[in-house]
Amino acid sequence: xxxxxxxxxxxxxxxxxxxxxxxxxxxxxxxxxxxxxxxxxxxxxxxxxxxxxxxxxxxxxxxxxxxxxxxxxxxxxxxxxxxxxxxxxxxxxxxxxxxxxxxxxxxxxxxxxxxxxxxxxxxxxxxxxxxxxxxxxxxxxxxxxxxxxxxxxxxxxxxxxxxxxxxxxxxxxxxxxxxxxxxxxxxxxxxxxxxxxxxxxxxxxxxxxxxxxxxxxxxxxxxxxxxxxxxxxxxxxxxxxxxxxxxxxxxxxxxxxxxxxxxxxxxxxxxxxxxxxxxxxxxxxxxxxxxxxxxxxxxxxxxxxxxxxxxxxxxxxxxxxxxxxxxxxxxxxxxxxxxxxxxxxxxxxxxxxxxxxxxxxxxxxxxxxxxxxxxxxxxxxxxxxxxxxxxxxxxxxxxxxxxxxxxxxxxxxxxxxxxxxxxxxxxxxxxxxxxxxxxxxxxxxxxxxxxxxxxxxxxxxxxxxxxxxxxxxxxxxxxxxxx
Length: 483
What we know:
about 475 residues; three-stranded antiparallel sheet; 16 helices
């Protein structure tokens, strides 16, 4: 059933196509019979229409289930009409002025080609010349296929056709020359604009390339534009060489940019890793002092320094340095495990909250403060003391013993004989310019400001604001009045 429907549909389409072709052929034949063309162009158009009808019938013949007998009948009638129209066309084309219209049109096209100002304006002229040449070839084929008794008539028609085709060729030559000139002018102008735009695009792409990966993307886009420009201006050899040089320049610029970005990324990654390493050292020290496993886990989960290490590892991932990122994560994990292990060991070895070490039934006191060396009075002399222990070592050096008068002096600015404010006033008096001192003395609070400035610079001399600076200012005022 499906096959029957398919065959029926094919028969219907073939019949419809044949009917349309027959109607079109009949319409063309009626028009050719009923009209009397006024010029060679119209005769050529009629003959061309008849030939197209013949070709359409042959196309219908190729359809499956087409009525071949009817097509043959229509084709035979069309051949008769084509021969009849050809005979009438020969009668017209045999006249001396038969191709005057074509020659005039060709002359106009040649003049228009010489006056064309743009390539776009010249393009339609080429199409019209091609159409004229095609029409003349049609006439040649028709005339060649007709049985013309008078050979001179055939020869005259062919000579006039050849002369007209010669005019077409001359017009084409004019058009081709003009088109070459226009292409050269327009091409060079377009290339100048394209090359300038390409340079600006390269500059913008370099500025936009902020990572080595974006450098590759921007470079690929620019190279594509250069390839397109080379294809567009392939007729200009000097442009091709210039574009090749531009390609090399762009590739070199982006290679340098990508390398500098990679170097900067590597330096930044190195700084991040070094900073994270220092933070990890601090994390380990702080974790070692924690009390209890809960404190260790809380510290590594919430402490800003541990979070900073994790954030640095993620940033290194973003920079493509996954090796250092994983190393930081591993070191942070190792620090947490080490702190937890130390807590377990401390629970096994230490007692009294970490104040003692248990070794069997013995207990030993423990201090976690770092040991330091100090010089302290001991009896009538001085001794070196190791803080946190009872270690004492008297200093017996004779040269050091000669400094005994200064052992009780805690500040360099004060002795039993010299008051701190006196030392400060003397310092200002000897270091400041006298004119500046007198100018300050003439201003309210001027001397006090100078003294405070000096006291601020000598922060290790123990001057107290409001006490020693005030007294020193009074002393300076009195000294300046005496000088």
